[in-house]
Each structure stands twice: as structure tokens, then as C-alpha cells.
Amino acid sequence: MKKYLLSPPHMSGKEQRYINEAFESNWIAPSGPHLTRFERELAEYHDVEDCVATSSGTSAIHLALRLLDVKQGDTVFCSSFTFIASINPAIYLGATPVFIDSEPLTWGMCPDSLELALKEAKHQNRLPKAIIVVHLYGQSAQIEALLEIATAYGVPIVEDAAESLGAEYNGKKLGTFGEFGIFSFNGNKIITTSGGGALIGKSAVAIEHARFLSSQAKEDKPYYHHKEVGYNYRLSNVLAGIGIAQFAVLDKRIRKKRAIFNLYQHNFQKEEGITFMPEQSFSFGNRWLTTCTTNKSIQDKHLYQLVKQGIEVRRLWKPLHTQPVFKDCSFYKLEKKAVSESLYEHGLCLPSGTMLTITDIDWISGQLRKELLN
Ligand SMILES: *Cc1c(COP(=O)(O)O)cnc(C)c1O
């Protein structure tokens, strides 16, 4: 049986060549020419001075929060509607998360809820050390509005663009608005190094410091000398080789992802029961995953049925404020019913691999219609 996965890796064919080069030159380490080149290409693409490639998107967030001096007893604000990796590094640093609801236009952090939370935090003299804004499913949050509010309170933003490499807000690449921006090259993301990530930021000095922290904070001396605690978070030169080949086809992958989204949307244009993730005029999404919401709440039995047919569908992110592990954390919302909770009850991610054909998408659409809309 053919399996239609959400977003499987899609090699360009040139990856092996770079891997071989790394082997031939014996740069089998978290340093080397591929790594330097991959970082430079990522920096140029985002029109920033520097970039550090990391072992994962999660480690990039961890480094960003460390650079913002997040520590025991601090709070960090974060979108509730996201993958747990967005906030885990704050926990590693001993901070307490506060979750913020989404708004329906972008599914990203709601600016009004953020303002409410900041106002209250200021009143209690407990402003957060950082705000993690997530750009979901390849689409920009209302980053300018969020930035304006955060700036008014003097709190830096970390953009979690793990899912949104190459996407834009008013023609500017995501990840370049906040103090820091992070990306992920995990196997399921739009391009992959099998596992990896990257960190960019407004300050080249800060990124250089992140690079230092990512290699155990080892001082440049002929003996082992450490003035602070670092991490082993640098990307391998072998994997950076995969990254170079993948990055070269990023724009092609974005075009295909967008075409897949449009095909699904076209297939359901006459159906009232299903709506696709909106794209606002300020946003150019990479459409990492095609996502939709249905009128009726989705039941697990329908999802099991689809998976049995080889169609990997998954609900949208389960809001973090509803996760048992965060049951004691605060959550700010405007609506009586949280937007993130309705998205979770009604929303679905569809198979969006860039190797899908039109025939595949038509067949999947037919099965979805049978299972979800009858
Ligand atoms: C994938 C993902 C991450 C984590 O990236 P890894 O490279 O898997 O560590 C963080 N945030 C979001 C929103 C993600 O989708």
C-alpha cells in the first residue's frame, strides 16, 4: 500500500556529493567548510550578518533564550498553539511559561491577548524575559503588531520560524523581525539535514556568542579553559553538506508546497464543511503543511480510518495550556472559547509531501471527503 506522509524528506539528488566531499576531506566533525558555507548561505538569504547552524531547532531556541539571560524564576511568554519544542528550552533554563492564545487570521499569537498579559505582568512587576512568537505551518503571525506591543514593554521577541523557512511578512523573510529567529531542518520540515537547526539575530556579536556557547564555551587557548557553561549544539559538517544541497532547492519546494495547497483547496472549493488555512495579504507562506478546519468537530475514529488507508492525517497542534505537563501555567485569551482550542477540535494537517502528484492529491481528497464530510 502506498503511504502518503505529512511531509517526508525530499532529496534533491546532490546531497550525496556533498557528503562524499566531507568524507574525502575527512571533515567529519561539527566544524568544516560545508558548515561555514551553509551558515553563510543562510545569513545571505535572510540578509543578516551571521548565522549559526545547530544540532536542532530546539537547541537554537535554547541558545536564543540563554543569550536573553533567561534563568531560574523568570517567565517566558509563548504561543499556546504550537509544538512543545517552542517552549521546552525555557523549562530547561528553569523559567516558567505563560501561554498566549491565537487569533483566527493567521492562527498565530493574538496581539490583544499578548497586550493583556503584558499589562498584567507589568503591574505585578514580572515582565517576561522573552516572547516566543511562532509562525505556524509556514505562515506569518501578525509579527508587526506583536513587535510593536513587545517593544512598548521592552521585551524581546524570539521568532520560532521552524516551520516557516522562506516565508515572508510584507516581503521580508520571517525570522528577521525579532531579536532572534530560529529554523529547523528536522526530517519533516520543508528542507532537512536529517536533524538540525539555525539561529539568526539582529546582533552579529550575539550570534558569535551563540556559536561559542554551541561548542562547549571553550576559550581560544592551548588548554581547556571555560568561563561559562556551554552546550554541544553545533551542526555536523556532514549534515551541513545535506543542508547545502537542500537549501539550493528551497524555493522550488516552496512553489510545490503552495501548488499542493492550491490543489486541495480547489478540490474542496464547493464544500461548505471545510475551510483551508487563510493567507492574509501581508503574508507569503511556504505552505509547509496544508491545513484545514471542518465545521464539525473531528473525531479520532475518522482519523484512524484515514491512516488505515495510508493517508497520514494529524490534528493541528494541541494547545500547550491544555497539556498535562503545563497544567499549572497561566494562559491569556480574549474569547470565551480559546481560538487555539477550537482550531484543535476542528483542524487537520493533510499529506503535503513535495513528491505528491496531482493524481495522489485527487485520490486523497476523495477519501477525505468520504470520511470527514459525510
Ligand atoms: C519542529 C519544530 C521545532 C523544533 O525543531 P527541531 O529541529 O525538531 O528541534 C520547534 N518549533 C516548532 C514550531 C516546530 O515545528
Automatic annotation (TrEMBL):
**InterPro entries membership:** DegT/StrS_aminotransferase, PyrdxlP-dep_Trfase, PyrdxlP-dep_Trfase_major, PyrdxlP-dep_Trfase_small
| SUPFAM superfamilies the UniProt entry points to | PLP-dependent transferases
A GO BP term here is: polysaccharide biosynthetic process
Which keywords describe this protein according to UniProt?
A: Aminotransferase, Pyridoxal phosphate, Transferase
* List of residues that carry N6-(pyridoxal phosphate)lysine: K189
Q: Which CDD domains match?
A: AHBA_syn
One Pfam family this sequence matches: DegT_DnrJ_EryC1
What molecular function terms (GO) are annotated for this protein? pyridoxal phosphate binding; transaminase activity
Active site residues of this protein: K189 (proton acceptor)
Question: Mind telling me which PANTHER family this protein's record contains?
Answer: DTDP-4-AMINO-4,6-DIDEOXYGALACTOSE TRANSAMINASE (PTHR30244:SF34), TRANSAMINASE (PTHR30244)
Instruction: Indicate the family of this protein.
Output: Belongs to the DegT/DnrJ/EryC1 family.
Q: What is this protein called?
A: Aminotransferase class I/II-fold pyridoxal phosphate-dependent enzyme
Q: Which organism is it from?
A: Listeria booriae
